[in-house]
Specification:
single chain, alpha+beta, 3-stranded mixed beta sheet, 3 strands
Length: 109
């Protein structure tokens, strides 16, 4: 069994150090179900948005690919801006000073 991963990349960015490949596990779309080869088929193109010209392809074996792991905490605005999380606000709704003063030590107040 071989898992195949197609990838487009611009010719000008072939040797860029910016992240261009990532894997994000997701219970609904998790496509890797067993131990197998994982190949990436990269197609180089000229970078034009219209009438792209593909001039090269490369088959990459990801078995010896050295990965970097990025642990990331993330949340949506809905997650962040909950009333119980707000310490101070410039809006019409304010946090009670007593609660703020007894919960946090803020040197700028």
């Amino acid at each position: 069994m071989v898992y195949r991963e197609p990838k487009l990349y611009e010719a000008d960015n072939e040797f860029s150090t910016l992240r261009s490949f990532h894997f994000k596990p997701n219970a609904k779309t998790f496509k890797i179900g067993e131990s197998a080869h994982h190949w990436l088929l990269g197609f180089r193109y000229d970078g034009k948005a219209v009438a792209r010209h593909f001039d090269r392809w490369q088959l990459i074996d990801l078995h010896h690919f050295r990965i970097g792991l990025k642990v990331e905490f993330q949340g949506s605005n809905k997650d962040l801006y909950q009333p119980e999380l707000i310490i101070l606000t410039s809006g019409s709704q304010s946090v009670e000073w007593f609660h703020l003063h007894n919960t946090y030590s803020l040197g700028f107040l």
